[in-house]
Amino acid sequence: MTGRNLILQRIVGALYILAGIGKFFPQLESVEGRLDDASEANQGTVISGFVDWLDGHPTGVMWFVAVAMVASGVALLWNRRGLVVAALYGQLLMLVMFVVILVSSVPQILVMDAAFFAAAIYLLYRYHSSPGGRVAAPSGPSREAR
Questions:
Q1: What's the pLDDT tens digit per position in 15-66?
Q2: Which residue, 72, 55, 59, is CA-closest to 19?
Q3: How far is it, in rounded angstroms, from Cα 45 to Cα 91?
Q4: Spatial CA neighbour of 67 closest among 3, 1, 20
């Protein structure tokens, strides 16, 4: 991973950690309030039953989302290729779910999540196009030469 890409990865990781921690502070973002708004905005849609169920379990949703965000952010900061790739795919799935659930009640989510989505796609592209994932020949003398 090049220097600029690693900086982007670490910035995104730090932002995910901060956003995950922020879920515990209703003054910053009330998960319960967001779910109430989403439940009301999605009445009569295909996802209304699912959103209503989420709305009935705001504490569980808050914990799940917060832990997922912090864990994926830590994976990006820790910078282990397999964990980073898994975290980025998980973030993409999470972002899609956020948009599907919240776009009716919070349309501005498209702008914020589009930036994170683009960063994840870019970083995945860089990881999949870099030679780091290929197995290299072992370095040093071979066993036969010893």
A1: 999 999 999 999 999 999 999 999 999 999 999 999 999 999 999 999 999 9
A2: 72
A3: 25
A4: 20
Q: What is the CA radius of gyration of the chain?
A: 19
State the burial class of residue 76 (Cβ atoms within 10 Å of its Cβ: 0-12, 13-18, 19+).
buried
- Dihedral (Cα; 114, 119, 122, 127), 10-degree rounding: -140
> Is residue 99 classed as helix, strand or coil in its secondary structure?
helix
Helices (H), the chain: 3-22, 31-41, 48-55, 58-78, 81-102, 109-129
Q: Distances in Å between the alpha carbon of 100 and those of 7, 14, 64, 111, 134?
A: 29, 24, 17, 14, 36
Residue showing tokens 């589009």: 114
Q: Residue 98 and residue 111: Cα distance in Å, rounded? A: 12
